[in-house]
């Protein structure tokens, strides 16, 4: 039986989970501001907030991808509740971004 050698400590996994939560939270906040801008037909602000949100999603996704590759290479297997929370938060932020596009289209049509 071979001994498992993790690339990350449990503390590092927790920190990565918190980083994902932070980036996803910033993305979600920017999506909320983008939605308010769309409601006010301020499309410059809408684009700015949406762009900021997408940058935050990308940063969270980079962390997630690193962990996925590490796990697939047998270098990581310690899952924490904070990491699960981070994944949940990221997925809801991504979903919010997808719904935002539909809502923005509705506001554009109402002008």
Tell me what the structure shows.
The protein has 111 residues and is mostly helical. The chain has helices at 10-39, 43-72, 81-110.
Radius of gyration (Å): 17 Å
Q: Which class do the helix and strand fractions yield? A: mainly alpha
Sketch the topology as an H/E string, one letter per element. HHH
Helix content: over 70%
Unreliable stretches (pLDDT < 50, length at least 5) are none
Shape: elongated
User: How many individual helices?
Assistant: 3
What is the straight-line distance between the termini?
67 Å
What percentage of amino acids are in beta strands?
A: under 5%
Mean pLDDT, as a whole number? 90
Query: How is the main sheet built?
Result: none
How many strand segments?
0
Name the descriptors.
111 residues; mainly alpha; 81% helix
Any chance you could write out the topology, listing elements then pairs?
Elements: H1 10-39, H2 43-72, H3 81-110
Quick structural summary:
Helix content is 81%, strand content 0%. It is mainly alpha-helical and 111 residues long. The model has no long low-confidence stretch (mean pLDDT 90).
């Amino acid at each position: 039986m071979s001994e498992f050698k993790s690339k990350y400590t449990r503390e590092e996994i927790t920190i990565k989970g918190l980083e994902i939560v932070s980036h996803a939270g910033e993305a979600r906040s920017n999506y909320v501001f983008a939605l308010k801008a769309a409601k006010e037909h301020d499309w410059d602000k809408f684009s700015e907030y949406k762009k900021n949100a997408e940058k935050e999603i990308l940063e969270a996704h980079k962390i997630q991808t690193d962990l996925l590759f590490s796990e697939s290479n047998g270098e990581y297997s310690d899952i924490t509740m904070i990491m699960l929370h981070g994944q949940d938060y990221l997925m809801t932020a991504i979903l919010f971004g997808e719904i935002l596009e539909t809502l923005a289209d509705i506001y554009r049509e109402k002008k």
